[in-house]
């Protein structure tokens, strides 16, 4: 009998786990249809006994493990996280009609548009230096808007403490940081990457988003401060590990290699929608990041694997 999941270190060694993304989703759907609810261990986390049962039935483990796949499946509306366990989501009946490519796309969109699963989102917000209460409110508001009927947003009656204007500014800058990272990775396409190079890229993207959001706290008196810490590399490293282990690996976009490296497994990344941004706005933020990175003094260089040619056309700061 196979274990609950392949360990993080096992994934990093590139062990063959044998169950594809779409096949894994199919097993989750069959199990939830048969049982009604799948047991959880914590928020959005599949119980190890459920994972072992899935391994026995399927004869394998998906990349990242059953728990990670269940987490991104809930973020895509295939499953639904609720107090009693993981139940059938709004899109559970549609999975059988998906292709492997569509399955990967839906799972990644759960993070890029709706900040799910919550563990990966929390790590990203922590690395950005966002106050935990602001993070809770932002994630709640974003997920409330998800088409699969996400979690209800937290209701705040005292707008003097957490103003809507600052919430919207924070939302924009969180998604700016994600748009820059996804845009840079999309320019490079498939290939083997260094995890540390991705940490450097994410760190620069977060610092860029913080500079673009510098007016969020300065222009508003009183209330709860949005930022409580700077962007620290150790926290960014944790966010990257969450992004890889909880999102990109189980969604089938990257796979672990030896020596602290990973391989972008898909030949070409399509143009993703990040948050509510349109493609033009995402590209404008990416161009601005590239221009600032090229002229800023004293910055840490991004790995050559994540360098792309800056477009010639100029752009003003979008969304301002």
Helix content: 40-55%
Secondary-structure element series: HEHHEHEEHHHHEHHHEEH
The biggest sheet amounts to:
3 strands, antiparallel
Arrangement of strands in the largest sheet = 5-7-6
The helix tally amounts to 12
> How many structural domains are formed by the residues?
2
**Low-pLDDT regions:** 1-16, 152-157, 300-305, 307-317
Main structural class: mainly alpha
Mean of residue pLDDT values: 82
Number of strands: 7
What does this 3D model show about the protein?
The protein has 2 domains: 8-98, no CATH class; 111-306, no CATH class. The longest helix has 25 residues, at 164-188. It has 12 helices and 7 strands. It is globular and about 55 Å long. A 3-stranded antiparallel sheet has the order 5-7-6. It has a two-stranded parallel ribbon with strand order 1-2. A two-stranded antiparallel ribbon has the order 3-4. α2 crosses α4 (66-75) and α9 (195-212) crosses α11. 50% of the residues lie in helices and 8% in strands. The protein has helices spanning 8-12, 21-35, 48-58, 66-75, 100-114, 118-128, 132-144, 164-188, 195-212, 215-218, 233-248, 279-295, and strands at residues 18-19, 61-62, 79-82, 85-88, 191-194, 254-257, 261-264. With 320 residues, it is mostly helical. Residues 1-16, 152-157, 300-305 and 307-317 have low confidence and may be disordered.
